[in-house]
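hey m, so remember when u said the tokens were messed up on ur end? i reran from scratch. heres the input so u can diff it against urs
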Amino acid sequence: MTTNHISVIAVMGSSPYIGGQENVVASQVVQFAGLSDRDRKKVAPLPKLAEGDHVELHVRRRDGREQTLSLPAAANSVVETLIQRLLSGERVAVLTEDQELSPTEASSVLGISRPLVVHRMDIGDLPFRHVGKHRRALLKDVLALKERLDARQKALDALAADTEDLIVNHGL
């Protein structure tokens, strides 16, 4: 059985979210990217970056022109994480923290169905706002819910393992 992992690299945004404002830009389409097995085999893993390492992005255009972009040190960990996740076979999306997601996009991040996302919105587990008739939730709120759901699942898994241990080893 193969597991399909999805990574979201969140980037802190500078613009505050103000609920109820109609002039806030609606959700952009979330696009996940991944590498094929063949492409992953072509790329050598990036050695762990150390303090003081410098990352440059080298671009070779179709017309043969080349450009090198020097990235600030603060971008090193994001670039390193992006490359590691892609090479491990995960699909990755880079979004800003203040990015708004539709219930369908949130369901991709959370790994649950769209109707369950809407239910979570309705019961107050996931804050949202309306854009016309459409619901939008902030990525940071979706990620906070994911963290809570993951912690809950981890606790349930531990409880199940303890129960199994009691049954197998202690005959309860």
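this time it looks ok to me. Residues 57 and 69 are 5 Å apart (CA to CA). if urs says something different then somethings off w ur setup not the seq
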